[in-house]
Amino acid sequence: MSRAFESLTVGRWQLPQRFVMAPLTRNRAGAGHAPTTLNAEYYAQRAGAGLIVTEGTAPSQVGQGYLDVPGLYTDEQVAGWRLVADAVHARDGVVVAQLMHAGRIAHADNKDGVETVSASAVQAPGEMVTADGNKPHDVPRAPSTDEVAGLVADFVTAARNAVAAGLDGVEVHAANGYLLHQFLDPTINLRDDVYGGTPENRARFVVEVVTAVAEAIGADRVGLRLSPGHQFNGVGEELGSTDLTATYRAVVDGVAPLGLAYLSLLASPLEPLETLVRDLRERFDGIVLINDGFGDVTSLGSVEELLETGLADAVVVGRPFLANPDLDERWRQGAELNEPDQATFYGGGAEGYTDYPTLEAS
Ligand SMILES: Cc1cc2nc3c(=O)[nH]c(=O)nc-3n(C[C@H](O)[C@H](O)[C@H](O)COP(=O)(O)O)c2cc1C
């Protein structure tokens, strides 16, 4: 029997297997950035994942970035998430909201004209899709030292809202070049206050957010996602540098005493990061989830290989879950898989979203 199908306790949840559904932005939220019955159907179809981490969800309007991303800062959004929570629970699943403040990966057009903030006023390269076509990312404003507390408070409110909606917890998104990662990266964070300069100072905001969220809703239903050195969205962290090691050690050492549900590491590419991943896993001393990035789509073989390395307790699986609502069953049976259709990843309706067939239907 493959290790992939051994059960695992993560925080307050007992999971049936050692792979979980990755956070996947799908840009299909309804009016007011609220989840809809279509979104609820999508997540319920995938309840067999055991643990679902939702698409990145904005903790505030300022934290919105892309078009049609859901939020967790209005009553309407909480009501929308209740549809998702109830539908997933009806199928015995567990679902946590990924709290994603986009920071500088944003355009005001996608959030009713509100401002964009980042660690420093450093514009991200590239463009953002808006309703009027592609536009350069906003030039962000750097919040003052005192304002950072307000950003922390937004994460706490969103986490409380997640629980109020009946969701099982939250994952704090400090990966992939969004706001929290922008504070970690010395090429984006040029601050000279307590949130900038040394690795410990750059780690401070992430540690404060995770600590405050854990205190608010209970550490055993809070996860943290990090992607050390992932050069995505203009991140300039240097693989193999002593600064990278010191920065991520500072984050992990800062959150380890909290007793979080899990630490989720996106290690891409895995090979040069293996030493750092092992080091962070030892320091964290709790459940570690891993994903080795966008290079190859995760397969059952790669899940098993990753588990064999001992780098993690479970593997985070993205595109195969996107295209296979019953992926767990298909992998158990060694059945054929549906192929993910990249053209329908971001935005649209049911097509490429809720219409991937189950094994039973195909
Ligand atoms: C369509 C799509 C949307 C994604 N959205 C998010 C997101 O909202 N938050 C996040 O942390 N990662 C996001 N990712 C990264 C995935 O969580 C995962 O790391 C990546 O897909 C590689 O794993 P895979 O080979 O299993 O798909 C996204 C990936 C894809 C393909």
From TrEMBL:
Keywords linked to the UniProt accession: Oxidoreductase
Coiled coil: none
GO cellular component, one term: cytosol
Annotated CDD domains: OYE_like_FMN
GO molecular function: FMN binding; oxidoreductase activity, acting on the CH-CH group of donors, NAD or NADP as acceptor
Pfam families associated with the record: Oxidored_FMN
Record keyword Oxidoreductase present: yes
Protein name as catalogued: Alkene reductase
Organism whose genome encodes this protein: Nocardioides zhouii
